[in-house]
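Q: Got a minute? One more chain.
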Amino acid sequence: MNKFKIKSFCKINLSLNVLKRNNNGYHSISSLITFCDLHDVLLINKIKGTKDKVIFTGKFKNNINNKKNTLTNLLNILRKKKILREQAFKINVKKNIPHGAGLGGGSSNAAALLNFFNKKMNLKFKKNQVIKIARQIGFDVPIVLKKQNTFLTGKNEKIKRLKKNFNLNILIVYPNVVCQTKKIYRNNKKFSFFKRNFQLFSKNKKKIITYLRNQNNDLEQTVIKFHPRVGNLINFIKIQNGCYFSRITGSGSACIGIFSKMEEAIYAQKLLNIKFKKYWSVVSKTI
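A: Always. Here it is, folded:
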Protein backbone atom coordinates (compact mmCIF):
# COMPACT_ATOMS: atom_id res chain seq x y z
CA MET A 1 0.00 0.00 0.00
CA ASN A 2 1.48 3.36 -1.04
CA LYS A 3 -1.01 5.71 0.63
CA PHE A 4 -1.47 6.24 4.35
CA LYS A 5 -3.62 8.50 6.53
CA ILE A 6 -2.74 9.30 10.14
CA LYS A 7 -3.92 11.78 12.76
CA SER A 8 -1.84 13.98 15.05
CA PHE A 9 -3.63 15.32 18.12
CA CYS A 10 -3.32 18.67 19.86
CA LYS A 11 -1.60 19.02 23.20
CA ILE A 12 -3.09 21.05 26.06
CA ASN A 13 -1.17 22.31 29.09
CA LEU A 14 -3.67 22.31 31.94
CA SER A 15 -0.94 23.85 34.10
CA LEU A 16 2.60 25.06 33.46
CA ASN A 17 5.21 26.10 36.01
CA VAL A 18 8.59 27.52 34.99
CA LEU A 19 11.08 26.24 37.55
CA LYS A 20 14.37 27.74 36.37
CA ARG A 21 16.37 28.96 33.40
CA ASN A 22 19.15 26.52 32.54
CA ASN A 23 22.67 27.40 31.45
CA ASN A 24 21.90 26.33 27.87
CA GLY A 25 19.18 28.97 27.62
CA TYR A 26 16.29 26.50 27.89
CA HIS A 27 13.94 26.22 30.86
CA SER A 28 12.95 23.46 33.25
CA ILE A 29 9.18 23.25 33.57
CA SER A 30 6.61 21.12 35.34
CA SER A 31 3.31 20.72 33.54
CA LEU A 32 0.18 18.62 33.45
CA ILE A 33 -0.60 17.80 29.83
CA THR A 34 -3.67 16.29 28.24
CA PHE A 35 -5.07 15.82 24.72
CA CYS A 36 -8.42 16.18 22.98
CA ASP A 37 -9.90 15.12 19.65
CA LEU A 38 -8.76 18.23 17.75
CA HIS A 39 -6.22 16.88 15.26
CA ASP A 40 -4.31 17.49 12.05
CA VAL A 41 -4.50 14.88 9.28
CA LEU A 42 -1.37 13.64 7.51
CA LEU A 43 -1.76 12.02 4.09
CA ILE A 44 1.42 10.12 3.23
CA ASN A 45 2.28 8.85 -0.23
CA LYS A 46 5.32 6.94 -1.37
CA ILE A 47 6.75 8.65 -4.46
CA LYS A 48 9.52 8.03 -6.94
CA GLY A 49 12.74 9.98 -6.78
CA THR A 50 14.99 11.05 -3.92
CA LYS A 51 13.34 14.27 -2.69
CA ASP A 52 10.55 14.41 -0.14
CA LYS A 53 7.66 16.87 -0.56
CA VAL A 54 5.84 18.41 2.39
CA ILE A 55 2.68 20.44 1.72
CA PHE A 56 0.40 22.20 4.20
CA THR A 57 -3.29 22.73 3.50
CA GLY A 58 -6.33 23.53 5.60
CA LYS A 59 -7.51 26.50 7.65
CA PHE A 60 -4.20 27.07 9.46
CA LYS A 61 -1.70 26.46 6.65
CA ASN A 62 -0.47 30.07 6.60
CA ASN A 63 2.84 31.11 8.19
CA ILE A 64 4.27 27.59 7.96
CA ASN A 65 7.47 27.17 5.96
CA ASN A 66 7.09 24.21 3.58
CA LYS A 67 10.85 23.75 3.42
CA LYS A 68 11.73 24.16 7.09
CA ASN A 69 9.38 22.67 9.68
CA THR A 70 9.20 19.79 12.14
CA LEU A 71 8.45 17.25 9.40
CA THR A 72 11.33 18.27 7.16
CA ASN A 73 13.57 18.29 10.26
CA LEU A 74 12.57 14.70 10.99
CA LEU A 75 13.09 13.61 7.38
CA ASN A 76 16.53 15.26 7.33
CA ILE A 77 17.52 13.49 10.55
CA LEU A 78 16.48 10.10 9.15
CA ARG A 79 18.29 10.78 5.88
CA LYS A 80 21.49 11.70 7.72
CA LYS A 81 21.21 8.43 9.62
CA LYS A 82 20.93 6.73 6.23
CA ILE A 83 17.41 5.53 6.99
CA LEU A 84 14.73 5.42 4.26
CA ARG A 85 17.42 6.11 1.67
CA GLU A 86 15.64 4.35 -1.16
CA GLN A 87 12.16 5.77 -0.58
CA ALA A 88 10.85 9.34 -0.86
CA PHE A 89 7.52 10.62 0.48
CA LYS A 90 4.93 13.24 -0.31
CA ILE A 91 3.25 14.40 2.89
CA ASN A 92 0.14 16.58 2.82
CA VAL A 93 -0.75 18.01 6.22
CA LYS A 94 -4.28 19.33 6.69
CA LYS A 95 -3.83 21.88 9.47
CA ASN A 96 -6.81 21.91 11.79
CA ILE A 97 -4.71 22.94 14.80
CA PRO A 98 -3.85 26.66 14.93
CA HIS A 99 -0.19 27.51 14.39
CA GLY A 100 1.69 29.38 17.14
CA ALA A 101 -1.09 28.75 19.64
CA GLY A 102 0.58 26.57 22.30
CA LEU A 103 -1.35 23.51 21.14
CA GLY A 104 1.73 21.60 19.94
CA GLY A 105 0.51 21.08 16.38
CA GLY A 106 3.95 21.00 14.78
CA SER A 107 5.39 18.74 17.47
CA SER A 108 2.42 16.42 17.16
CA ASN A 109 2.88 16.22 13.37
CA ALA A 110 6.51 15.15 13.80
CA ALA A 111 5.70 12.65 16.56
CA ALA A 112 2.93 11.06 14.50
CA LEU A 113 5.20 10.75 11.45
CA LEU A 114 8.03 9.30 13.54
CA ASN A 115 5.68 6.68 15.00
CA PHE A 116 4.39 5.94 11.50
CA PHE A 117 7.86 5.38 10.09
CA ASN A 118 8.86 3.18 13.00
CA LYS A 119 5.79 0.94 12.76
CA LYS A 120 4.77 0.93 9.10
CA MET A 121 8.25 1.13 7.56
CA ASN A 122 9.54 -1.48 9.99
CA LEU A 123 12.45 0.59 11.30
CA LYS A 124 12.48 -1.40 14.54
CA PHE A 125 13.66 1.53 16.66
CA LYS A 126 13.72 0.84 20.37
CA LYS A 127 11.83 3.18 22.69
CA ASN A 128 14.95 5.11 23.74
CA GLN A 129 15.98 5.55 20.09
CA VAL A 130 12.60 7.04 19.19
CA ILE A 131 12.79 9.45 22.15
CA LYS A 132 16.34 10.48 21.21
CA ILE A 133 15.27 11.37 17.67
CA ALA A 134 12.17 13.16 18.98
CA ARG A 135 14.31 15.35 21.26
CA GLN A 136 16.38 16.46 18.29
CA ILE A 137 13.26 17.95 16.71
CA GLY A 138 11.81 19.82 19.69
CA PHE A 139 11.07 19.82 23.41
CA ASP A 140 7.41 18.79 23.05
CA VAL A 141 7.94 15.99 20.53
CA PRO A 142 8.86 13.24 23.07
CA ILE A 143 5.83 14.27 25.14
CA VAL A 144 3.32 13.87 22.30
CA LEU A 145 4.64 10.53 21.08
CA LYS A 146 1.75 9.08 23.10
CA LYS A 147 -1.78 10.48 23.27
CA GLN A 148 -1.83 9.92 26.99
CA ASN A 149 -2.17 12.25 29.97
CA THR A 150 1.32 13.22 31.05
CA PHE A 151 3.02 14.96 33.94
CA LEU A 152 6.34 16.70 33.34
CA THR A 153 8.17 16.52 36.63
CA GLY A 154 10.64 19.29 35.84
CA LYS A 155 13.55 17.08 36.81
CA ASN A 156 15.92 15.82 34.09
CA GLU A 157 13.12 16.06 31.48
CA LYS A 158 11.39 13.12 33.18
CA ILE A 159 7.98 12.28 31.73
CA LYS A 160 5.39 10.47 33.85
CA ARG A 161 2.49 8.92 31.92
CA LEU A 162 -0.82 8.83 33.78
CA LYS A 163 -3.33 6.03 33.37
CA LYS A 164 -6.24 8.22 34.45
CA ASN A 165 -8.56 9.71 31.81
CA PHE A 166 -9.70 13.18 32.85
CA ASN A 167 -12.79 13.51 30.60
CA LEU A 168 -12.91 17.27 31.05
CA ASN A 169 -15.26 19.47 29.04
CA ILE A 170 -13.03 21.97 27.29
CA LEU A 171 -13.47 25.12 25.23
CA ILE A 172 -10.41 26.11 23.18
CA VAL A 173 -10.23 29.59 21.69
CA TYR A 174 -7.58 30.94 19.32
CA PRO A 175 -7.52 34.78 19.22
CA ASN A 176 -5.62 34.96 15.91
CA VAL A 177 -2.30 35.72 17.59
CA VAL A 178 0.90 33.82 16.79
CA CYS A 179 3.08 33.60 19.90
CA GLN A 180 6.81 33.06 19.49
CA THR A 181 7.78 30.50 22.12
CA LYS A 182 11.40 31.66 22.45
CA LYS A 183 10.31 35.28 22.89
CA ILE A 184 7.75 34.41 25.58
CA TYR A 185 10.20 32.29 27.60
CA ARG A 186 13.02 34.82 27.17
CA ASN A 187 10.89 37.60 28.62
CA ASN A 188 9.23 35.56 31.36
CA LYS A 189 9.88 36.81 34.89
CA LYS A 190 7.69 34.40 36.85
CA PHE A 191 9.20 31.24 38.34
CA SER A 192 7.71 28.62 40.65
CA PHE A 193 9.11 26.22 43.20
CA PHE A 194 8.64 22.55 42.41
CA LYS A 195 5.78 21.03 44.38
CA ARG A 196 4.65 17.46 44.02
CA ASN A 197 0.92 17.13 44.57
CA PHE A 198 -0.57 13.67 44.84
CA GLN A 199 -4.06 14.92 44.03
CA LEU A 200 -2.82 14.66 40.47
CA PHE A 201 -3.02 10.91 40.63
CA SER A 202 -6.36 10.77 42.40
CA LYS A 203 -9.31 8.95 40.85
CA ASN A 204 -11.59 11.57 42.33
CA LYS A 205 -12.55 14.10 39.64
CA LYS A 206 -13.46 16.75 42.22
CA LYS A 207 -9.94 16.56 43.64
CA ILE A 208 -8.44 16.87 40.17
CA ILE A 209 -10.56 19.98 39.48
CA THR A 210 -9.57 21.45 42.86
CA TYR A 211 -5.92 20.80 42.07
CA LEU A 212 -6.19 22.40 38.63
CA ARG A 213 -8.07 25.47 39.90
CA ASN A 214 -5.17 26.12 42.27
CA GLN A 215 -2.63 25.86 39.46
CA ASN A 216 -1.66 28.41 36.82
CA ASN A 217 0.47 29.00 33.74
CA ASP A 218 3.58 31.00 34.65
CA LEU A 219 3.88 32.30 31.08
CA GLU A 220 0.42 33.85 31.04
CA GLN A 221 1.32 37.35 32.21
CA THR A 222 4.17 37.57 29.71
CA VAL A 223 1.82 36.59 26.89
CA ILE A 224 -0.75 39.16 28.05
CA LYS A 225 1.95 41.83 28.20
CA PHE A 226 2.69 41.36 24.50
CA HIS A 227 -0.89 40.50 23.48
CA PRO A 228 -3.48 42.19 25.77
CA ARG A 229 -6.39 40.63 23.87
CA VAL A 230 -5.42 37.27 25.42
CA GLY A 231 -6.10 38.66 28.89
CA ASN A 232 -9.48 39.98 27.78
CA LEU A 233 -10.36 36.59 26.35
CA ILE A 234 -9.36 34.71 29.51
CA ASN A 235 -11.49 37.06 31.62
CA PHE A 236 -14.48 36.56 29.31
CA ILE A 237 -14.22 32.77 29.43
CA LYS A 238 -13.81 32.50 33.19
CA ILE A 239 -17.03 34.42 33.97
CA GLN A 240 -19.17 32.08 31.86
CA ASN A 241 -21.62 29.82 33.65
CA GLY A 242 -20.06 26.52 34.71
CA CYS A 243 -16.44 27.50 33.99
CA TYR A 244 -14.03 26.11 36.58
CA PHE A 245 -11.05 28.09 35.30
CA SER A 246 -9.53 29.64 32.20
CA ARG A 247 -5.87 30.14 31.20
CA ILE A 248 -3.51 29.92 28.25
CA THR A 249 -2.07 26.62 27.09
CA GLY A 250 1.66 26.29 26.54
CA SER A 251 3.22 29.63 25.60
CA GLY A 252 -0.07 30.81 24.08
CA SER A 253 -1.95 32.27 22.44
CA ALA A 254 -4.80 29.72 22.61
CA CYS A 255 -6.91 29.99 25.75
CA ILE A 256 -8.79 27.14 27.39
CA GLY A 257 -11.82 26.99 29.62
CA ILE A 258 -12.76 23.89 31.61
CA PHE A 259 -16.50 23.53 32.22
CA SER A 260 -18.61 21.43 34.56
CA LYS A 261 -20.96 20.38 31.72
CA MET A 262 -20.57 20.08 27.95
CA GLU A 263 -23.80 22.05 27.44
CA GLU A 264 -22.27 24.97 29.35
CA ALA A 265 -19.11 24.88 27.23
CA ILE A 266 -21.21 24.91 24.04
CA TYR A 267 -23.30 27.83 25.28
CA ALA A 268 -20.16 29.75 26.26
CA GLN A 269 -18.82 29.17 22.74
CA LYS A 270 -22.01 30.68 21.28
CA LEU A 271 -21.63 33.79 23.43
CA LEU A 272 -17.97 34.01 22.51
CA ASN A 273 -18.80 33.86 18.80
CA ILE A 274 -21.04 36.88 19.27
CA LYS A 275 -18.50 38.98 21.19
CA PHE A 276 -15.34 37.85 19.36
CA LYS A 277 -16.62 37.14 15.86
CA LYS A 278 -13.21 36.67 14.25
CA TYR A 279 -11.79 34.27 16.84
CA TRP A 280 -11.66 30.53 16.18
CA SER A 281 -12.95 28.07 18.76
CA VAL A 282 -13.80 24.43 19.34
CA VAL A 283 -15.51 22.45 22.11
CA SER A 284 -14.28 18.97 22.94
CA LYS A 285 -13.55 16.46 25.68
CA THR A 286 -10.10 15.72 26.96
CA ILE A 287 -8.98 12.10 27.15
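A: Residues 105-120 form the longest helix (16 residues).
Q: Perfect, thanks.
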